Structure formats: C-alpha cells, structure tokens
Amino acid sequence: MSVAIENFVKAIYKNGKRNQNDTKPGNIAKELGISNAAATDMAKKLALKNLIDYEKYQELKLTDKGTKMALNVVRKHRLWEALLFKLFDLSLHDIHREAELLEHQTSDLLANTISEYLGNPKFDPHGDPIPNAKGEITTIDTSIALSNTQEGQTYTISRLMSDDKEFFDFCAQNGLKYGNTVLVTKQFSKNKMTQILINNNTILLNEDFTSIIYVNEKI
Amino acid sequence: MSVAIENFVKAIYKNGKRNQNDTKPGNIAKELGISNAAATDMAKKLALKNLIDYEKYQELKLTDKGTKMALNVVRKHRLWEALLFKLFDLSLHDIHREAELLEHQTSDLLANTISEYLGNPKFDPHGDPIPNAKGEITTIDTSIALSNTQEGQTYTISRLMSDDKEFFDFCAQNGLKYGNTVLVTKQFSKNKMTQILINNNTILLNEDFTSIIYVNEKI
DNA sequence: AAAAATATTTAAGCTTACTTAAAAAATTAA
DNA sequence: TTAATTTTTTAAGTAAGCTTAAATATTTTT
C-alpha cells in the first residue's frame, strides 16, 4: 500500500481518537493538507479496498482491516521515535518529523527488530502507547488532560499529545517531559487556565496546552 | 526530488563505477527493473533538471549536480547499513534491503546524526566507502578483485560488492566477511576459479564470486 | 422554516512514472 | 558491406494522487 493510503488511514484513526470526533473528508483533508475533493476521491478508493466504510456525506469509518493498517503504521512511527530518542540527542520535534517519513519504509521485520532491541517498550517518548506486532494496544490509559486536574494534587506527566515545534520547545524549556512531576496550584476555571509548579517554577498554562498535556495522579 | 529520480541517478553512478562501463538507458533500465522507454523518458527529464547530460544514443553522464545527488543517496544508504549492522543481528542482505528504502526518507540532519553517532565511519559493513557530508569520498581504494590475486599471498577482505542474498548467505557460512584473512592457494586461470584457505577451510570460488570479492594485500 | 453559510461530491484536468507497440538508429554477424 | 539483431527512441496510453471549479447536500443561523 502506498504512502498516501497509509497516511490517509492513519489520519482517520487519529481523528477518530480525538476530542471532536469528526472523520468526514474535510477534516481528514485538513489534517493531510490536501483538498476536500482529493479526500472524497481517496475515500471511495479505500472503500473498494475494504479499508474503510464509506457512505456519501457520512463520517469515514475504518474497517478492521483499515484499523489494523493504521495501527501498524502508528506502531512503526512510535518505535522509530523511541529508537531515535534513545540513540540521538535530537529534539522531540525533529524526531517526530523523521519518524513521520521512516514509518512508511519499514518492514515488519525491522519494526520487530527495533522493538526487541528496545526491550519491547509499551510507550514512546511522548508517552503514547506502542501497538504490539498484532496491532493491539494492551496498556490501559488512565491519564487525564491537565485542564481536568484538581487543585492541590500532584501528578506525573504521561503524554504530550502534539507535533508542534513551539509546544515542544516550550516543554523542553520548562521541564515538561514524560515522567516528570507537577503540582497543580490553581485552576482558573473562568479563564480556562491552569497554574502549576514544576522544578520549583510556577507557570501558567492556557487551554491550548493544558488540553494536550496528559497526566496521571501521583500515588 | 522523488525516489524514482534518486534511484535513477544512483543507478547511473553505480553503473559508471563498474567494470562494463555502460550507462546507456537500457542498462539503467535493467538495473532498475523498468522498461527501456521509461529510462529514455527519465533521462530527458533529468537533463532538463541539469542532473545528467543527455545526447541521443549516447551514454548517460552525471553532471556535478547529479553526482552530488547520487553520492548523497549513497552516503545515506551506507550510513543506514552501518547503523543497522551495529545495532541489530540482521543478515547483510536484510540490512541492504532496509537501507535501500530508508535512504530516500532520511534528512541530511539525520544522516549527519547517524554518522556522528557511529564516529564518522569511513566504510560500511561491506567495506564500501561512505561519502562525507559534502559528498566526497576521501579514502583511497587499493583493493583488487580476488580473481586478480597472486597464489601464495595472504589478503584481507575489504569489500563484498553485491546485493544478492545467496551470495551473502554463502559468505556468512564460509567466514567471508569484511576484515577477515584469506590465503590464495591456487589460481585456476583456464577455468577462472580461485582456491582459497579461510578459517582453515579450503574453498573453491568461480569468477561470479571472485569478481565481486575485493581484498587488500596483507602487510 | 427559509436563507445563508459550509461541506461534500462530481467533473475535468494535470503531473509523475510507468507501460506496450512501432519506428529509427546503432551494433554485431555473416 | 550488407543483413540480422539489438538497442534506443517516439508515440500513445494508463494509474495514482493530486488540483480547481461547479453542482449538490448538509448544517447553521436568523
């Protein structure tokens, strides 16, 4: 299957997992940077290949086969992220960009080899779960967005759900990384902002960031 | 530039380096598994991009720009080979196949990062020289084909110039690998065969193999 | 519930990288 | 050196993955 198809299926998968669950062609088109017409076109083709269910004007739904393909690509992406992160001193953003390309040119053999080399990790450097070779995610995600946390409670950062360079630069500067501890000092619910204490620094985050930083309650 | 273009330019480069110096479209077509017509077509396009000089019925000649592109791809290929060889226990043939795909999806940044990680190696696991970031090969190759060696002389294996699975399997089974020592016990010049002693085993090789196994005189 | 705005689909067209078939040139053999 | 063979080129055509423009639905607003 082509790169275009893999990315299309992956986009549907990712969009389906997100808050605003819209997997209509326009949304996928926006994600991929192609025209709406191209997305509709591709949707029809993928339906013929039994990768998605397509009905005019409806949401695009992955079939089992389509989901499997998406998870296979996601697996390769996250394994590359984990490997590049371990070996090299590159920014998370750079690592993401490289993985975005490499994921499509990686045999199952190589993916499995990378996985084994890394000790079959369950999470990538963003805290995102890595599907196993069968395309299953076996971990249970109990994390919540920073925007939904409670004042006075301490959390550990579990996921940074983004691929934006500015965001990652900000995180790197402020110690916001996978595994680190944050104390939520104040929720400004009216203004949708969250004040946290991290590395003895107080910072105030708006919803753009608190909705993509996920945490777990610290035990 | 596209994968097709990178592979085309690479094929001209490799063919130009070889014994039978034929870089006419038919030869490139054979190398790439495409039709002669497609190769002629591509040749014209690349001439417009100033990557090759093209004259009807003549050999295809890389311009400086084309050579630079070819060497950049070759560099990435060989760096991947070196990295995969170091990290994983895969066969040389598998490593070659993976590198063949990854080479086209590797930024210069990642290539340089891999190179640095490996200590800027000058050779890949086949003994092939790795061009530097400027696209220069700074090493001098003094090696000769096993078919041109002298009876009674001891050599070290410097290059295994192939991408054929059977060949690599044979090499792996018989200790024919980069750096190992061989004693040439007999040259059967009439039959174009070479008898060698390696790891205390005597083996007899025909020209198919002795022309692609390169060695240096052992000092 | 009609009007306005937005999204989706259809239609026509483009580029890339191929294909096969036939024509033209170059190479090899007789 | 002519004939036979092989190679290269030209021509016409295809599929993938896009585009823009226009037609048709759907959704939102009033």
Structure description:
The structure is a homodimer of 219-residue chains. With 219 residues, chain A is an alpha+beta fold. The first copy, chain A, has 8 helices and 8 strands; from the N terminus they run αααββαααββαβββαβ. Chain A has helices at residues 3-17, 25-32, 36-48, 64-87, 92-102, 108-117, 165-174, 207-210, and strands at residues 52-53, 61-62, 144-145, 154-160, 181-188, 193-198, 201-206, 213-217. The first copy, chain A, has a 6-stranded antiparallel beta sheet with strand order 3-8-4-5-6-7. In chain A, helix 1 (3-17) crosses helix 2 (25-32). The longest helix of chain A is centred in the middle third of the chain and has 24 residues, at 64-87. The first copy, chain A, is globular and about 55 Å long. The mean pLDDT of chain A is 93. The A-B interface holds A 84, 87-88, 90, 94, 97-98, 101-102, 104-107, 109-110, 113-114, 117 and B 84, 87-88, 90, 94, 97-98, 101-102, 104-107, 109-110, 113-114, 117. Chain A binds a DNA duplex (30 and 30 nucleotides) through residues 2, 4, 24-26, 34-42, 45, 56-57.
Unreliable runs of chain A: none
Biggest sheet of chain A: strands, sense, closure?
Answer: 6 strands, antiparallel
What portion of residues of chain A belong to β-strands?
A: 15-25%
Helix content of chain A: 40-55%
Specify the oligomeric state: homodimer
Brief overview:
The structure is a homodimer of 219-residue chains. Chain A has helices spanning 3-17, 25-32, 36-48, 64-87, 92-102, 108-117, 165-174, 207-210; strands at 52-53, 61-62, 144-145, 154-160, 181-188, 193-198, 201-206, 213-217. Chain A is of the alpha+beta class.
